[in-house]
Every structure is written in C-alpha cells, then in structure tokens.
Amino acid sequence: MRPRRATVRAPEQDSTSNDLMDVTATPMETLLKRFQSFRPPTLKGTEYSVDCESWLDDIELLFDSFDYTDERGVKLIGHQLQEVAKNWLITTKRALEQRGTEFTWKVFKTEFYQRFFPVSYRKEKGAEFSNLRQGQLNIEEYVAKFPTLLRFAPHVAENDETVAD
C-alpha cells in the first residue's frame, strides 16, 4: 500500500483559494504544477508550420516571464507536446543521447525547426526576410516582421552590427 502524502493548507494571503499544498512534492513537481497553472499551449505536431512557430513563441515568452533556465525549459517542454510531437521528442532525445549529445534548449530548438519547419518553409521565410522592404507597411509593422523572419535567416545576423545594417 502506498503511503498517503501529507497536505497542508497554503496560507491565504489576500486569497480565497482553498488549494492544498503537497509538502512532499519535489521541486520539479512544484515547478511543473506552477507552470501548468498558467495553461501553457500544447502542440500535437500535426499543425501547420506557422502554428508551430506561434506555439514556440508562446512557450518561450512564458519561460522568459518566469526567468526559467534552459535546463528547466527542456524538462518542462515534454509536458506540452502530444501525439506526433511527443513521439518525435522521445525519439529525438534518445537518438541524441545515444550519440552523446546533451539535450539542451538550443538543441531542442534546432531539432524542432528541422522537424516542424520544412526546408521549403524555411527557404520561403528566408527569402521573405531578404526581400523585406517597408513599402506599404507602417514602421511598427515593418519592425515587427523583422525579428520574426530573422529566425529563418540566422546567417544574416551573425552579430548585432549586421542586424543594424
């Protein structure tokens, strides 16, 4: 028989919440519960590339808001993937570990882009970046498009001076 976990009522500082706090929870369990309380978006992996891009942006904004380390992000991300995306993550992570590659946030993003952004999509976005002109866009629209497209043309922005040109 499994021992029952002790629970205590969390202090109700200016709150009407009746949530119970699990005093035996590990720091990672507590982190995951907090993260999940903000209802982060999930990804099935069957969405269009633009939806995958939006999902990643939303996840990164959430991570930035909480000042999560890359290590925490890598641990939390698997909980937001479902179906095709979760299977992809498990397979990719195993393959990388077998090759001795540490599964970092940077590695996750590289692998994620390769899997969920087909070469044709990346080329299209890279070309769109190369051809970006203000034209009919107001300055706010133009400035907003720049970093969005830049992720598909990283060779252009090797340093801040290149981006400013």
Describe the structure.
- The protein is built from eight helices and two strands, in the order ββαααααααα.
- The chain folds into two domains: 27-117, no CATH class; 121-160, no CATH class.
- The radius of gyration is 20 Å and the shape is globular.
- By secondary structure, the protein is mostly helical.
- 56% of the residues lie in helices and 4% in strands.
- It has a two-stranded antiparallel sheet with strand order 1-2.
Short description:
By secondary structure, this protein is mostly helical.
List the helices and strands and how they pair.
Blueprint: E1 7-9, E2 20-22, H1 27-37, H2 49-65, H3 70-77, H4 83-98, H5 105-116, H6 119-130, H7 139-150, H8 160-164
Antiparallel strand pairs: 1-2
Please give a handful of descriptors for the protein shown.
mainly alpha, 2 domains, two-stranded antiparallel sheet, 2 strands, disordered N terminus
Please indicate the count of domains. 2
Which structural class do you get from the secondary structure elements? Answer: mainly alpha
Question: What's the overall average pLDDT, rounded?
Answer: 77
The percent of residues in helical segments reads 55-70%
Q: What does the largest sheet look like?
A: 2 strands, antiparallel
The count of helical stretches stands at: 8
Q: What is the strand tally?
A: 2
Which geometry do the CA atoms define?
globular
Please give the alpha-carbon distance between the first and last residues.
Answer: 67 Å
How are helices and strands ordered from N to C? EEHHHHHHHH
